[in-house]
Amino acid sequence: MTYTIGGLIQAADYNGFVANTASANVNAVWNSTYGQPALTTANVGATVTATQWASLNNTLTSMGNHQATTLTSRTSPVAGNTIAILANVNTDLTSVNSNKYYAYASGSQYTAWTGTASITSATGHTNTAWTLTFTDTVTFANATAATNFWGAGGYMKIQFSKSSTGTDADADWNNFINNVCGTVYFTSDASSKVIANVTYLGTKVVGGSGTPTTLATGTGWNQLTASPTTIYKQFDTGYTYTNDYVQVTATATSSSVLTLVTTWFSAARATSGSSRYISGGTATTGITFGTAPTTVVTYFPPEVVYLANTWGTTSVASTASGPGY
Asked: Which of 286, 9, 318 is nearest to 133 (CA)?
């Protein structure tokens, strides 16, 4: 590239910063990852205007602000003035490309899921194995909206809850769900990223005293396929019930649909001993948790201070089923 201090600014130089597919560039992040309007390239042989150069510089600043990435100091040129070379553009482009999944903040938590997230009737069996299944279907407006949501810093939050009482097994399951299991977060990509001052990989668990046998830190939306991937599995740590577990799988059902299936599994017991069914309880609404066995999926969309909303509205539809009693 001929871009050097004291040299002329050529269209090829400017276009390389904007859209050179062979290296870090503005549009690779601003447009392809965040869905913001792409910067246009300059015509070869034409003059690169102060307005074009200021647009590139201001867009770099917006990306840096969105990511909380520190950029070098520079001032955008003003129309009518001589355009001077702006130093360290390549350095800043490398930084914002490396940190493209970072975000200084998130949008407000979306809690308006629809359907049923709780099992309100007693469920399970006395001694045989049983399974509760919670399915959450996350639907984006289209494939592009999904790409923009994840790329700009959106992520899922998966919570478990149960506090109902009345059966022999309730106390153990209440402890398992509320104290051993944690809260699961699912993000865009396997790469390390910082969103709202919290570091994430693909899947992250926060809280809970247990150590998951599976925690798919190397799996985010970008790594999913049409086959379910187990992103979290936690076994009970109780003395008697160590074969019981909670598991979450994630599937890219399509390019615009994420399916999260959470399984609460109780292993078979010997014929003697206390029964293993659990009580129901009151249902959860939004993130106001009732007493019933519940799995809730909500999400945090990207921030809209430095970015325009290019991901639209995302819905979450929930179902819950068990064997009855």
From this structure: 318
Sign of the alpha-carbon torsion through 277, 184, 178, 137: negative
Per-residue pLDDT tens for 230-254? 999 999 987 667 789 999 999 999 9
CA dist., res. 183 & res. 159, Å (int):
5
Gap between the Cα atoms of 127 and 272, Å rounded: 8
56, 37 contact by CB (below 8 A): no
Distance CA 216, CA 234 (A): 12
* Range 142-169 burial, b when 16+ CB lie within 10 A, else e: eeebbbbbbbbbbbbbbbbbbbbeebeb
Q: Provide the 10 A C-beta neighbour count for residue 263.
A: 17
Judge whether 104 and 67 are in contact, CB under 8 Å.
yes
Asked if residues 174 and 301 have their Cβ atoms less than 8 Å apart, the reply is no
Specify the DSSP class assigned to residue 106.
B
Q: What is the mean pLDDT of residues 56-62?
A: 92
Does the predicted model carry a pTM greater than 0.70?
yes
The model's pLDDT over 109-157, given as tens digits with 9 standing for 90+, comes to: 999 999 999 999 999 887 788 999 999 999 999 999 999 999 999 999 9
